[in-house]
Amino acid sequence: MKILLVRLRMIGDVVFTTPAIRALRRRYPHARLSYIVEQEAAPVVLGNPHLDEVIVAVDRRAPGRLGADLALIRRLRREKYDLAIDLHGGPRSSLLTWASGAPQRIGFNVAGRSWMYTTRVARPRALRPRHSVDTQWDLLLPLGISPPDRETDPTEMPEDPAAAAAVDRRLRDAGVNGAAPLVVVHVSAGNPFRRWPVDSFVELICKLAAADSSRRIIITSGPSDATAAAIVEERARARLGPALREAVLQVGEFNLVELRALIGRASLYIGGDSGPLHIAGTTTVPVVGLYGPTLPVRSQPWRSSSFISEAAEAGELPCRPCNQRRCVPGDFRCLTGISAEIVAGLAERAMAGGH
User: Fold this and answer.
1) Which of 273, 340, 275, 280 is nearest to 311 (CA)?
2) Cβ neighbours of residue 339 under 8 Å, at least 6 residues apart?
């Protein structure tokens, strides 16, 4: 049996499909499982032990994408898949699912595209207080697969040995020894509506360093936010002064597999609701997530309850959650309402080992 899975676009969304990958392998132990993903999120699944093949589609904005997609469709047709599951539901993913020619094609009942599937699954358009793993798992229910359990089917992204070795070297070069508590603070977010203010990150880092001088804090970001990370680093080191400034390390940028290895060595990860937060959720490391316009119930780490996950949020607001297209109040209160003091308190509790 040949099974094709399609999930394009965002890193976190691909992370949230990994429990379904494991469930499909358990349900069809002898099947050939193939997964189509775009380049940005490909590292999440390239090392997945339950997949036989990862097909990397060209980026949707890449020159010559149409020709590349036609070549990909011809490849899919030659493979003669028995089952194709569209875990995405977008125009491109639904087209690839339909064009695969699989006799059974499962997808969400989306207006204008549902005809491309032989089995359609309801997906309400309203923002629901329901985890993304549960929503994507709905596509497996027609196959007789039981509902998900985060204790047995957590998200996963195996550590890459080469990346781990590279991270270890960089930490040693930065003077980090195994006894130093390592805190990773990620200042990027998926969009401006999820980006905690720079000054809040600076204040948080200063509080964490002042509370324990043995800590070493690494500030990370996505490529587009490298400038913001540099500003946070510079301001935090300036505020801490000569005695504590060395607690904030300067170790450069990390790619996705290196970031996974770095987080795996940390005592704590702090970051907004974006792909790196969900990668942190594939580890056992304590996590403090910053949830502005989003809800923890929808996107908190999907893993065993024995691993600590704290949620920093501004509480109930009439505009929260939102579609992240326009801030109706205009002041981003869902983000500014999360104080550095609150996050620092959650961080200390997480590192102390208790919820």
Assistant:
1) 273
2) 200
Q: Where are the beta strands (DSSP E) in the chain?
A: 2-6, 32-38, 53-57, 83-86, 104-108, 119-121, 182-186, 216-220, 248-249, 268-272, 287-291, 309-313
CATH 3.30.70.2190, applies to 161-352: no
Give, in order, the Cα–Cα distances in Å from 214 to each of 179, 258, 346: 9, 23, 19
Per domain, the residue ranges of the chain are 2-143, 161-352
CB 288 within 8 A of CB 347: yes
Sign of torsion, CA 21 23 25 27?
negative
Judge whether residue 130 has pLDDT over 80. Answer: yes
Q: Which fold has domain 2-143?
A: Rossmann fold (3.40.50)
Residue 133, pLDDT above cutoff 90: yes
Task: Give the neighbor-by-neighbor strand order of the sheet with 104-108.
Answer: 53-57, 32-38, 2-6, 83-86, 104-108, 119-121
Determine the residue type at 107: G
pLDDT one-digit tens code per residue, 83-113: 999 999 999 999 999 999 999 999 999 989 9
User: Is 266's pLDDT higher than 60?
Assistant: yes
Distance CA 317, CA 294 (A): 11
